[in-house]
Amino acid sequence: MRTAVMGTGSWGTAYAMILADAGNEVVMWGRDPQLCDAISTTHENPRYHPGIPLPATLYASTDPAVALAGAEVVILAVPAQSLRANLAEWAPLLEPGSVLVSLMKGVEQGTTRRMSEVATEVAGVDASRVAVVSGPNLAREIAERQPAATTIACPDPGTAEALAEASTTAYFRPYWTTDVVGTEIGGSVKPARGVGARAIILAAVMAISLPLGACSGMPSFGNLFAGPDPSSLPDEPAEKLYNEGIALQNRRDWRRAALKFMEIDRTHPYTEWAKRALIMAAYSYYESQDYEETINQARRYIQLHPGSNDAAYAQYLMGAAQYDQIPDVQRDQARTERALVILEEVTRKWPQSEYATAARRKIEVARDQLAGREMNVARYYLDRRQYAGAINRYRTVISQFQTTRHVEEALARLVECYMALGIVNEAQTAAAVLGHNFPDSQWYKDSYALIQGQGLTPREDTGSWISRAMRRITG
User: Do 155 and 26 have their domain in common?
Assistant: First the structure.
């Protein structure tokens, strides 16, 4: 899920870390260029969380348009009293249908509006697209990845559940509700010191929560602190739900099977059945071609059960989900690169597993795809006689993708480029290496004719980068 976190403070940074750890694509926004640069390059927030490593995939920008571009979820993590002014600036940049999530506590001075009300008013969105996060959370402890829980509230139950799932990690467990008012008011009660102060706070929360509970079916007061009321959980045992999921798989009803397995994860967390269900959910999502959910659930499985026998399969599923989305070679190959990294991890960590062989086959295809991208760009430069640019791209193919089908043409094109530039020695070397490795190739015949036409013959210079690069694979 593409997420923007608007704010680089203590809580905003901690929540951005949670989202990134949960497998989301996260971009932060902040006003301080030096702080944004530190988050992006050193993967640390030295001002608020010094010494705590942030996920390498997390980066920050001072440009709100960059942070908000394509964001499905926008996390609002600025000071409460500055929300109205900031959101007025950001509103034109919001993606249609994006969900706003407030991390802020308190009410707006002067209007006494809750933060969700300010967001709804200023952004001009329906209340069903605004959610809030509130709980007994200390940003520093969460940044240290200490176990914690929180509440996510949104009027739309589907959105609330999706946000909770997208924020779930091995150390952070959100519970969702549709009671936005109760969640915000409860969170607005500031911590106080002393037994008397605590009693006053508890009395205030009871006064708020009990009437709301009578009207809306809100969980009991005790469960505001202890999570969902056990009496509200389904009666079905985990084994029954699991078998129902298997039955749905056998009927190839993959989507419903995935949802059935995810129900086990929600209602019987941290059990052996939940462990089994999570990997089966990832597989079901893969078969239903919901690749983003496949990646999310497989990543969660690895985070929760890194030593499991099925960890290799979860890693392979992540790679296969990226692999199946590899675009045409003419388009951006970011997914191909991600697939390659994930699949290479399968062969590195689990080289003897049954999934390593399948991963290697996919790796070869992915590498060929990336080499094809370089060849396309190189041909573009060559057609325009921009020989230096073309040589750089052909060099990438020969240096990094020697085992692909493109290396043969790349060597021949280097002969052409170097001859056009008058760098005869490199042209002769490229032709000689091409002839040595592909003696019956039409590319070699054409290259030989080009060299011979200038009264030259192929001759390898062993000090050339071409010779050194090819020796690495031919010995």
Answer: yes
